[in-house]
Amino acid sequence: MHTMLNYRILYRLAIMASERSLILQPHNWALRRDHGMMLYYNRKYGQAVQELSICMAFAPEEEAKVLEAFVEKLHLLRLESSWKSLGHTGQLTVP
Questions:
Q1: In whole angstroms, what is the distance from residue 45 CA to residue 78 CA?
Q2: Whole-angstrom Cα distance, residue 90 to residue 88?
Q3: Shortest CA distance to 35 belongs to which of 12, 61, 9?
Q4: What's the fold here for domain 2-85?
Q5: pLDDT of 53-88, one tens digit each?
Q6: In this prediction, what percent of the chain has a pLDDT beyond 70?
């Protein structure tokens, strides 16, 4: 438990540092990608989708294609997460 708390603190500090870097370089797609991935690893799916979507606008075409597929999956994770937070059980299925 104590170790998990330390990781959460470290993730939060890393995210804060990343936010400050983005203030200085808002069009740096690599910084924005890394920031979005940190949000994803911290299970902040909505914020991760937003940052990675912005990143795609500035990224080279090849990188944007890779990110697009990941962001689509992240949208599904976000939906599933909100579905479970409403008290529903089971997986969401798409007909």
A1: 5
A2: 7
A3: 12
A4: 1.25.40
A5: 999 999 999 999 999 999 998 988 888 877 777 776
A6: 89
Report, in this order, helix, strand and coil percent for the chain, each rounded to 5. 80, 0, 20
Gap between the Cα atoms of 68 and 57, Å rounded: 10
Going 62 to 28 to 56 to 10, the CA torsion angle's sign is positive
User: What's the token pair of residue 35?
Assistant: 């920031």
Q: What is the pTM (predicted TM-score) of this model? A: 0.77
- Residue with tokens 């990188």, as numbered in its chain: 63
Computed over every residue of the chain, the mean pLDDT equals: 87
Residue 89 — pLDDT band, cuts 50, 70, 90?
low
First CA to last CA distance, the chain: 40
Q: Choose among 53, 49, 58: nearest CA to 25.
A: 58
Q: Structural domain boundaries of the chain?
A: 2-85
